[in-house]
Specification:
Blueprint (H helix, E strand, L loop, with lengths): L1 E8 L5 E9 L3 E5 L6 E7 L2 E7 L6 E6 L4 E7 L3 E2 L5 H4 L3 E4 L1 E3 L2 E4 L2 E4 L6 H10 L4 E2 L2 H6 L8 H12 L3 H18 L4 H8 L4 H11 L4 H6 L5 E2 L9
Parallel strand pairs: 3-14
Antiparallel strand pairs: 1-2, 2-7, 3-6, 4-5, 4-7, 5-9, 8-13, 10-11, 11-12
Helix pairs in contact: 5-6, 5-7
């Protein structure tokens, strides 16, 4: 079973949230759609791994979560990316960085100490100072509708470079995650349709089956054995 121990917002302009969890015995796991990149430190089966995970455009079932493992996640803000790694090649996948010892890993020809829950913000700031973490403000501006239409092609190009996704794809993913949160909180299916901005219940069902991997009823009733990846309360754009 995967147990999320705690999470917190970040003071870093590049980090959305920091979370950590552990597992007690192996269990089925499913990764749900996500619009942000993420840095994850995994400690399991006698090894330590730093994984750079890209955005995910659909629900992806994976093998059983390893038993007796620990994970630290650094969820990056929308528009934050790692210049040495093209975000487009990270979509629906992840890259494990080379481990140099139990305490360090290799990134961009430099050795880095694995971050922990308390110093994750400092770790992100160090990456930024080395030019290994950047954020394009055009992403927030575009999602809030604060851009000039005459620059649309430039904006689309920069948006795709920073996020790996289109604006429409990100809006759909964020809406599905918001709907899932509402359902988990006990909101009815029909009220979720209205609050999350779906046309009708079939529209909601199609979206959640593709992006979350479960129907609204399955989410509400918790009838599936798979555990889901980290989810927190968000607001729609």
């Amino acid at each position: 079973m995967l147990i999320f121990d705690e999470d917190r917002p970040s003071d870093s302009p590049f980090v959305e949230r920091v979370w950590r969890c552990h597992s007690e015995g192996a269990a089925p796991f499913a990764s749900i759609a996500a619009s942000r990149c993420e840095l994850v430190v995994g400690r399991f089966e006698g090894k330590v791994v730093m994984t750079v995970r890209g955005p995910e455009t659909r629900a992806i079932p994976v093998e059983d979560c390893p038993g007796e493992g620990e994970w630290l996640g650094i969820l990056l803000k929308l528009g934050t990316f790692l210049p040495p790694l093209s975000t487009s090649i990270l979509v629906d996948t992840g890259i494990d960085l080379p481990t140099t010892s139990r305490d360090s890993f290799l990134f961009d020809s430099s050795v880095w100490q694995f971050p922990d829950y308390d110093n994750a913000d400092t770790f992100a700031d160090r990456l930024m100072r080395k030019g290994l973490l950047a954020r394009d403000p055009v992403v927030d501006a575009a999602l809030q509708g604060h851009v000039q239409t005459r620059d649309i092609r430039t904006i689309q190009r920069r948006f795709l470079r920073a996020t790996g996704l289109t604006q429409n794809a990100i809006r759909q993913i964020e809406r599905a995650r918001y709907a899932m949160y509402l359902l988990q909180e006990g909101v009815s299916i029909l009220d979720t349709v209205e609050q999350a901005g779906y046309f009708d219940q079939p529209h909601l069902t199609r979206s959640l089956k593709h992006l979350i991997g479960q129907t609204p009823a399955q989410i509400r009733e918790k009838s599936r054995p798979e555990q889901m990846s980290f989810l927190y309360k968000t607001t729609l754009f």
